[in-house]
Specification:
A four-stranded antiparallel β-sheet has the order 2-1-5-6, with no helix packed on it. A four-stranded antiparallel β-sheet has the order 3-10-7-4, with no helix packed on it. A two-stranded antiparallel ribbon has the order 8-9. It is built from no helices and ten strands. About 10% of the residues are buried. A hairpin with a 4-residue loop joins β8 and β9. The chain has one domain. It is mainly beta.
Length: about 110
């Protein structure tokens, strides 16, 4: 069984046991995160697939995850340059993330 969830303005395909990096959430390491924005679930059994699609979200379906780690990703370098003007500006950005492990889809 897998699900399509939405968190932090992005969509992810998750199933039980997956680890993924999502946008920063205000939880501590070891806490449980409940994601209620489930767009779609697919249950694959021996007979075939059953697909449930929300409009926009599914009612009563949640994804439970555990916070494994928090951190910041690698630095993205930004360089603004104007030719023949002797003008150059260098900036950087590091995005914060929360790494979660998916426990269950219910």
């Amino acid at each position: 069984m897998y699900a399509i969830i939405k968190t932090g303005g992005k969509q992810y395909r998750v199933q039980a046991g997956d680890k993924l990096r999502i946008e920063k959430v205000p939880q501590n390491v070891g806490d449980e995160v409940i994601i209620k924005d489930v767009l779609m679930t697919v249950n694959e059994d021996g007979e075939g697939k059953s697909v449930a699609v929300g409009n926009p979200f599914l009612e009563g379906v949640t994804v439970k995850a555990k916070v494994v780690d928090e951190g910041r990703s690698d630095k993205v370098e930004i360089l603004k340059f104007k030719r023949r003007k002797h003008s150059m500006k260098s900036m950087g950005h590091r995005q914060s993330y929360t790494e979660v492990q998916i426990d269950s889809i219910s």
